[in-house]
Amino acid sequence: MACHWNATRSATPSDNPATGAPPLPLAGRPGCPQPGITLATRTNAARSLDRLKITYSLRAYQVGKEHLSAAEVAAQLALDPRAVFKTLLVQDPRGEHAFAVLSAVQQLDLKALARTAETRSMALTPLDRVQAVTGYVRGGTTALAARKRLPVYLDESALLRPMISVSAGQR
After folding, report:
1. CA dihedral 93, 102, 66, 98 (to 10 degrees)
2. pLDDT tens digit sequence for 75-107
3. Ramachandran class of 53: left when φ > 0, alpha when ψ lies in -120 to 50, beta otherwise
4. Is the dihedral of CA 82, 85, 61, 68 positive or negative?
5. What's the whole-model pTM score?
6. Mapping DSSP to helix (H, G, I), strand (E, B) and coil, where does residue 47 land?
7. Between the CA of residue 121 and those of 90, 93, 104, 145, 150, what are the distances in Å?
8. 3-class DSSP state for residue 35?
9. If 0-12 CB within 10 Å is exposed, 13-18 middle and 19+ buried, where does residue 24 land?
10. What is the pLDDT of residues 98-136, one digit of tens each?
11. 153 beta partners
């Protein structure tokens, strides 16, 4: 399931819903969720956006036994892959976690992220730890309403787009 919304201004570190800071004022995309998405099937991420009064739309897509890349999700939903963002869980040498959110067409530069985070290095968190840390499974990880409040590093290209799509926290 993917979550779509329109950003109306750029984010600052204090505007991070995942950290409990004041939410971004976001203008919603008109329309109803796809058939089959009901209040009962909404994820914690969707409920979090509801509490923050952020308008969004949910879109369901088919997932097989194999993991879908963000680019494959974009293709299924007929969306520009530059507007579909993947969420990766990373950690510094002390084991402190953070989310890196970047578009489907980008590769994470761990050295650049470490410089931004002002730490010696960053590494992807092993897949067997992702669910324990975030509460989400691989392919359904989102910075929205994660189990723990973690720093979020959002690629600046998201701020240049009128709409971005992220995982709604379900695979």
Report:
1. 30
2. 888 899 999 999 999 999 999 999 999 999 999
3. left
4. positive
5. 0.75
6. helix
7. 10, 7, 23, 26, 17
8. coil
9. middle
10. 999 999 999 999 999 999 999 999 999 999 999 999 988
11. 100
